[in-house]
């Protein structure tokens, strides 16, 4: 069921011209599926009928083009401090391994530990002398001299939401938040959109391949929370296919590509149609002239122009159109949902998108591919790790060859680690007390291992890193002061790093 439309109309003769703004279904930009457009023009242009009075203008905050925005919020946004400074990174690609990847079987192996702790896999040497990682990650092993590996990410949020890793709120309790809420802390991508100057012709924050929890229940973490839906990411959609049925602990490779709503806009949208829409905006702005001294007008105009730019931008459509890539590039990344997400991430970075999150989760309910391995841990990792090795290395190499790695930060992590002891089902259970984060690219120290866990990989014994520390580090590399505050729904200043501090040793 769709909410009622809001709009402004002018009439003349037998026709009426209406600017109709529909509530967004999946994206704060209201980019619509086939057969629908966010803006509809009916009849020829004519003189304006009724003027827009102040009462009407007070309702503008409810229009879907800028959902969640009210007059006080606009005033607050216009006057808030947006502290930024030059940063090493222009873009971020964050690969979140949804479910909790096993640090013990990937990047913090314990070969001297007892059998029920060290597991089945053998460590191999890497390009960084003295560092060993899992035998099923040979391609990434060749890049470790360029990377920073953090082995002591720790918090207490024992729940399968990307909330902690994407927002940096390490104080969240297991039952809060249980679903996306307007009171949630915003994700890093949303904060970047809020604070940084972003291009108007590409989405500044994109979430692939679909909303978090799209196969089960909606999960928090990727959204803008109290910053308002205007700063939500553009969520792509996906509908993968599978060779067989599989099961939760029996992974099957999902095939398909993420799809942007922008690619589904009518292809017959003409220049004349675009100009009609711009004419309507000009009419709207004429009604706002009595309030032209207010920052609200500038803010509203920015929302309108951004939506139009994304609606009509060939640059956006091109970034999402994977058909433009040659066959060998598709093979390099892998012709599967995860590989195609990473390829799309590279195209978005190349186009100018600031923040891309790829959330690797179960592709269809009851079909594996996730990282929540309470059973069959080693069998599932034999499926997941070669894929991870391929898609991460393809992205890193591709960025390097295109001279984009020095301006792009690539991050691989998950919401928690896994338990040191292997359980009776040959699985590992939840373990937020210790996990990993791999960083490579813009502003990142090369050839560094940061932090040490104990002999069983259960707890940090030095240099513990909180989720707030991680996001503070990322913000600083993007040129955002980690001490910056943003207003919550009550206008209270909330620190974007939640008390975290940049890890200075991992920053060049």
What does this 3D model show about the protein?
- The chain is α/β, with parallel strands linked by helices and 508 residues long.
- It has one domain (91-265, 309-506): Alkaline Phosphatase, subunit A (3-Layer(aba) Sandwich), CATH 3.40.720.10.
- Helix content is 27%, strand content 15%.
- It has helices spanning 54-58, 71-79, 115-118, 138-141, 163-167, 188-195, 271-288, 295-312, 314-320, 327-333, 337-351, 377-401, 467-477, and strands at residues 6-12, 15-21, 91-97, 123-125, 132-134, 147-153, 205-208, 234-235, 355-360, 408-413, 417-418, 430-431, 435-441, 448-450, 452-453, 460-462, 485-487, 493-495.
- The strands form six sheets. Strands 8-7-9-3-10-13-6-14 form an eight-stranded mixed β-sheet, sandwiched between helices. Strands 1-2 form a two-stranded antiparallel sheet.
- Helix 2 (71-79) packs across helix 8, helix 7 runs antiparallel to helix 8 (295-312) and helix 9 (314-320) packs antiparallel against helix 11.
- The longest helix is centred in the C-terminal third of the chain and has 25 residues, at 377-401.
- The termini are far apart.
- Mean pLDDT is 79; it is low at 1-82 and 287-302.
Provide a short characterization of the protein structure:
The chain has helices at residues 54-58, 71-79, 115-118, 138-141, 163-167, 188-195, 271-288, 295-312, 314-320, 327-333, 337-351, 377-401, 467-477; strands at 6-12, 15-21, 91-97, 123-125, 132-134, 147-153, 205-208, 234-235, 355-360, 408-413, 417-418, 430-431, 435-441, 448-450, 452-453, 460-462, 485-487, 493-495.
């Amino acid at each position: 069921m769709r909410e009622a439309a809001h709009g402004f109309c002018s009439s003349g003769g037998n026709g009426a011209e209406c600017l109709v703004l529909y509530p967004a279904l999946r994206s704060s930009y209201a980019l619509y599926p086939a057969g629908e457009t966010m803006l509809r023009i009916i009849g020829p242009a004519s003189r304006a009928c009724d003027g827009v009075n102040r009462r009407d203008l007070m309702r503008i905050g409810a229009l879907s083009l800028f959902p969640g925005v009210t007059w006080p919020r606009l005033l607050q946004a216009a006057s808030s401090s947006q502290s930024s400074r030059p940063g090493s990174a222009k873009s971020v690609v964050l690969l979140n391994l949804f479910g909790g990847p096993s640090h013990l079987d990937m990047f913090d192996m314990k070969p001297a530990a007892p059998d029920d702790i060290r597991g089945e896999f053998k460590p191999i040497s890497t390009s960084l002398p003295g560092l060993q990682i899992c035998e099923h990650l040979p391609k990434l092993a060749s890049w470790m001299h360029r990377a920073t590996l953090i082995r002591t990410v720790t918090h207490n949020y024992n729940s399968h939401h990307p909330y902690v890793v994407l927002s940096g709120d390490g104080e969240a309790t297991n039952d809060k938040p249980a679903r996306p809420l307007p009171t949630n802390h915003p994700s890093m991508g949303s904060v970047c959109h809020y604070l940084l100057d972003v291009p108007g012709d590409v989405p500044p924050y994109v979430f692939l391949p679909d909303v978090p929890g799209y196969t089960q229940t909606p999960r928090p973490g990727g959204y803008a929370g109290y910053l308002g839906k205007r700063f939500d990411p553009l969520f792509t959609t996906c509908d993968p296919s599978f060779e067989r049925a599989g099961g939760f602990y029996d992974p099957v490779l999902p095939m398909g590509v993420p799809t942007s709503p922008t690619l589904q806009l009518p292809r017959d949208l003409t220049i004349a149609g675009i100009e009609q829409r711009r004419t309507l905006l000009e009419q709207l702005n004429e009604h706002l002239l009595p309030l032209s001294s207010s920052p609200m007008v500038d803010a509203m105009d920015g929302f309108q122009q951004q939506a139009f730019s994304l609606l009509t931008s060939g640059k956006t459509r091109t970034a999402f159109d994977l058909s433009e890539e040659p066959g060998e590039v598709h093979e390099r990344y892998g012709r599967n949902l995860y590989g195609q997400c990473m390829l799309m991430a590279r195209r978005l970075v190349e186009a100018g998108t600031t923040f891309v999150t790829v959330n690797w989760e179960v592709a269809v309910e009851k079909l594996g591919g996730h990282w929540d391995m309470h059973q069959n841990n080693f069998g599932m990792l034999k499926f997941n790790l070669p894929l991870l090795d391929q898609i991460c290395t393809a992205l890193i190499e591709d960025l390097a060859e295109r001279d984009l790695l020095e301006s792009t930060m690539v991050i691989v992590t998950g919401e928690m680690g896994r338990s040191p002891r292997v359980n009776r089902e040959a699985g590992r259970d939840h373990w937020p007390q210790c996990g990993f984060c791999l960083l490579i690219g813009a502003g990142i120290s090369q050839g560094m291992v940061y932090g040490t866990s104990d002999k069983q990989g259960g707890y940090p014994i030095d240099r513990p890193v909180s989720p707030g520390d991680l996001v503070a580090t990322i913000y600083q590399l993007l040129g955002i002061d980690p001490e910056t505050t943003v207003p919550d729904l009550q206008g209270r200043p909330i620190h974007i790093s939640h008390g975290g501090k940049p890890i200075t040793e991992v920053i060049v």
